[in-house]
Amino acid sequence: MSAATGAERSHSGAPRDYDLIVLGGGAVGENVADYAGRQGLRTAVIEAELVGGECSYWACMPSKALLRSGHALRAARRVPGAREAIQGELDVHAVLDRRSSFTSHGSDAGQAAWLEGAGIDLIRGHGRLVGPGRVQVGERVYTAGAIALATGSLPVLPDIPGLAETDPWGTREATTAEHIPSRLAIIGGGVAGTELAVAYSSLGAHVTLLSRSQLLAGEEPFVREGLETALVQEGIDVRVGTVPTRVDRDHDGVVHLDLADGTTIAADELLVATGRRPRTDGVGLDAVGIDPDARLRVDESMLVDGTDWLYAVGDVNGRALLTHQGKYQARVAGEAIAARHLGQQLDTGEWGRHAATADSRAVPHVVFTDPEVARVGLTEAAAREAGLPVRTVEHDLGAVAGAALHAEGYTGRAKLVVDETRQVLLGATFLGPDVAELLQAATIAVVGEVPISRLRHAVPAYPTISEIWLRLLEAYDQAG
Questions:
Q1: 146 phi-psi bin (left φ>0, alpha ψ -120 to 50, beta other)
Q2: Which of 63, 158, 262, 298 has its CA 20 to 30 A from that of 106?
Q3: Helix axis angle, 92-102 relative to 60-77, nearest 10°?
Q4: How far apart are CA 454 and CA 328, in angstroms?
Q5: CATH 3.30.390.30 region(s) of the chain?
């Protein structure tokens, strides 16, 4: 492909440096560049921190590594014969060392080598848009036919007097810590707050979890109630419906939280996990006529509205702040960018190759607490709010033979949300130990819009927890 062709020239007529430049070298940015590069496009990734991004070093991987050992220990204690063989508690040093091994001890050499092997150039530094198809890094300006923003998201710090001055932990500090505080207070009852509460409690900290509203507020009611009960049984001090009115750290380093109910909590460290916002600051959106404080609106191929060259992929577009959804968007965007560059027609139909339609209809996610929470698609409340004709069924997961074998006293619940008109699943929710592995079957059913009549012929193996599908469908028939 000649650099002198019209498709490879900048607006000034000079040859472009690349066909695609991606700002952000996390998992999402890597995938955009990779999928475009597979079609022959010349691609580069600009990254100011570690290649691999938030998920690899400060979020998904280290947090799940911190959780896994505690999950395994509790799982063994739930099985007679295994529990008698267990002696002692978790080896904290070994857990932290395993955590660090998953983050390559803070080295991105392996990720950088992967980019090189994929034929993707790595440009180290902070990239900023300075015009259509133009990105500045240091003193150098690079040009490209398309630019993709994959800059991720940033934590939000609530406006609580004294909070910023106490030097609280964010999720980065919590997942990379080299010590376990005796007392940890957590503000935030969402995914990060509940997961890290379980992780740190397993590692020996006395954890106090503060949530302004219900835990995991967007989930089904049985999830919120069941998870709160489990966390309390784990020894976590869960306080729902109260927030700090002031936070201070004294000369000895102890954090004091004055709560709205008049009580005070003392902790050795304070973790704030109250949500995230798209990272659009400092990327130069104002230089191309886009308000950096407004939400970036994109079409289903991730092309930013009002442009023909700028894409926003992953957390930065605010559609679904999940790594796997960002990578899904990246695959779509990378191939769409390549198709446009090559003059090919895009497939943007309902489930087209160049359309990230699952973002609004079939987003799967797992909360790796104990018990786990796994959901895809809509909750009952969301479906009814959308005006959809729904019928729901629930079933006790612990009543399934496979669950009884899995663990003594297994407790959990499952729920299906069904579109009564089309007779297809709109959503499914599972609560219980190890239910994450039930989620992909539900995701396939939702995405594939598999009719209930067809699902009856998907026979679950016996004795497995997946037999819950049979029980749910039987309950649906009985309720009809």
A1: beta
A2: 158
A3: 140
A4: 27
A5: 371-479
